[in-house]
Amino acid sequence: MNKKKMSLFYIFGLILILYLIVTLGLYIFQRKLLYHPNFNSHLKGDGLIHSFENINIRTEDNINLKGWLHLKNPKKKIILFFHGNAGTLDNRIYKLNFLGNLDVNFLIIGWRGYSGSSGKPSEFGLYQDAKSVLNWLNSKGITDDKIILYGESLGTSVAIEVGQNRDFAGIILEAPFTSMIDIGKKYYPFFPVELLLKDKYVSKNKIKNIKSPVLVMHGKKDNIVPFYMGKKIYDLANQPKFKYFPDDDDHMMNFDKNLVNEIHLFLKNLN
Description:
- By secondary structure, this protein is an alpha/beta fold.
- It has one domain: Alpha/Beta hydrolase fold, catalytic domain (Rossmann fold), CATH 3.40.50.1820.
- It is about 40% helix and about 15% strand.
- Strands 1-2-4-3-5-6-7-8 form an eight-stranded mixed beta sheet, with helices on both faces.
- Strand 5 (about 145-150), helix 4 and strand 6 (about 170-175) form a beta-alpha-beta unit.
- Helix 3 crosses helix 4 (about 155-165).
- The longest helix is centred in the first third of the chain and has 32 residues, at about 5-35.
- It is elongated.
């Protein structure tokens, strides 16, 4: 083997070793790359203007979840808010202030590992959290037909998971994605994402099992979750379904009068 071929062989070997090292690193640290409980990617706002109760809910696997419950009228429907993969409950205050002005109650919980809740996040863990919160609501006499699931980004996949084959009043999906596999392929196109991923969140295969009315909201300039994914989820959803696709919104949708009005109209359609 001549020197040129030897050099090419060594270069190829080094590239392969580096590729394997990076691949191994992605596998080992993937949940640190996916879940960001301390990263404030959301506007914090001036403080929650609605009265609320601090609550603690114990999951079946003994995780303590912290949350905020705003109960203005026990006879009204309640929005159960599932937040995204980054930030704290405080970072959703500006959304809760808008939602609290509507004729509904609301409950938001921090996923395991977020906002003082114990444990570490995972796909199975978040599903357990959501199911435990729903069980808690049911135990308080709040039946599924009084519950509106609201999923934000990562929370949309949890809402779709627990919303399957149940008769909830409605489901709101803000910036939903088709699957974490599809997201991973977008950001890491040269790696075997489907083989590496532990938490796959395959919403596109589950949305057909939703029987409740669905509102899909997605900004067309979303630079984190591509708009076509939200459109795909909407296309796959059963009727009745509604959409709000503003031209200029990115991943952090503008909670302006147009968006709030769409939610208000959706809620009216549920009555």
